[in-house]
Amino acid sequence: MQEYQVINKIKKLESIKPDKGWVISTKQQILGFELDHSKVSTLDWFFIAFKKPVLVLSALLIGVVIAGGFLFSGFQGTEPEIADNNDGMLASLQNLEAKLGEISLSLDNLEKATDQSQALVMAGIIKSTASGIEQGVSQIDANDYKEQVLAVKTASKEVIEKADDFSLKAIETLIYYYREQTLSEDNQEHLEKLEESYNNGEYNQAMLWIQAIQNNINNN
Amino acid sequence: MGNIQKKFGYIYDKYVKKVYLFVYLKVSSPEIAEDITSRVFLQSWNKFKEVKDLENPRAYIYRVARNEVINYYREKSKLKIVSTESIEISGPEPEIEEKTQARLEIQDIKKAVSLLKDDYQNIVIWHYLDDLPIKEIAGIMEKPEGTVRVMLHRALKDVRTTLEAEKDH
């Protein structure tokens, strides 16, 4: 047996790999960003009943967008009767905060979605909606609402952070998943670029590569 | 997630499979390999938090892995026994016969590597499975490069002898 044949045989040991689930859960445990499963969302039953977390979240988002639109249009003076009504404004802000809280809890369930690429898109929408709300309420400087505005901003921030954490984990899960699949040549290249973007911390770019891979998979 | 966590996250992603393989080849049990590998990364993470960065994370992690394996054998006073348990092989599903053959071949190689002296094993794994250059291995082992080259050559010779002996049986 030649030396190169021995080396080739040794290289076959590379096929021994740890359990994928263990790799992910160990990382979460070490870095301390495991989910707090003790939190129970009031919306849990929705997810159990429909088993379509994405749909429920979409509905919630519409609610938030409507609530936000209602609030901001009122504040900007197009609906003076609302802006002038302290109770109405406070109620809108409280409603917005409550809905953001529900969405924050619901983000935990997004991890259970079968299609992580779809869940990732949803997390992106949630994040941009929460960012929009955060920016919107920042324009409110009336002293009467100070406390409630701060509460909405805090709730928005929590949703943004959670969406970011979820997105990161979803990207990692998808990378591990794609690595185990037999991919087309195109998708193999996309996967390499996806890993490169991920390693460079370019998560938006990484999401675009995931989209490209998914599009190819769906079209084949 | 903070920046420091993200940074260490990349290091974890990059080396976890390699460290697992390194440990697994030494302890021959997936559960023990997982346990030791977790401890290696936890220890590395604690160090990383303390110093905010690691100059050469790979070298540091392998040093920790090496020490953890030594500790494991020291604490448990266990003998290294080559396991004949099944090994998970990734990649497309081959036919049953091919798969069985592939498993047997891998078991033979694993056995041959496991029979090497500890230092020889480390060099073979690091150089051929982790693509570590001789210079870096020499740094981790605190030995001259020339010595590492000689050890690698001898290790390959030993693996070949064991594999050929297996073939003759």
Helix content estimate of chain A = over 70%
What are the low-pLDDT stretches of chain A, counting only 5+ consecutive residues below 50? Answer: 33-59, 69-84
Cα-based radius of gyration of chain A, to the nearest Å:
22 Å
> What is the general shape of chain B?
globular
The CATH topology of the largest domain in chain B turns out to be Rna Polymerase Sigma Factor, Chain: A
Which chain pair has the greatest contact? A-B, 32 and 42 residues
Approximately what portion of the residues of chain B adopt beta-strand conformation?
under 5%
The CATH superfamily title of the largest domain in chain B: RNA polymerase sigma factor, region 2, helix turn helix motif
Distance between the termini of chain A: 44 Å
Count of separate DSSP helical elements of chain B: 7
**Number of strand segments of chain A:** 0
Alpha-carbon distance between the termini of chain B? Answer: 55 Å
Oligomer: heterodimer
CATH class of the largest domain in chain B: Mainly Alpha
Gyration radius of chain B, rounded: 17 Å
How would you sum up this structure, described in words?
The complex is a heterodimer of chains A (220) and B (169). Chain A has 220 residues and is an all-alpha fold. Chain A has a domain at 49-162. Helices cover 77% and strands 0% of the residues of chain A. Chain A is built from 10 helices and no strands. Chain A is elongated. Mean pLDDT of chain A is 72; it is low at 33-59 and 69-84. Chain B is mainly alpha-helical and 169 residues long. Chain B has 2 domains: 3-76, Rna Polymerase Sigma Factor, Chain: A, CATH 1.10.1740.10; 96-168, Arc Repressor Mutant, subunit A, CATH 1.10.10. Chain B has helices spanning 3-27, 30-51, 57-76, 96-114, 118-129, 134-141, 145-168. The longest helix of chain B has 25 residues, at 3-27. Mean pLDDT of chain B is 82; it is low at 78-95. Chain A binds chain B through residues 1, 3, 6-7, 9-19, 22-23, 26-27, 29-33, 164-165, 168, 172, 180, 182, 199, 201, and chain B through 1, 5-6, 8-10, 12-14, 16-17, 20-21, 24-25, 30, 33-34, 37-38, 41-42, 45, 87-92, 105-106, 109-110, 113, 124, 128-129, 156, 159-160, 163-164.
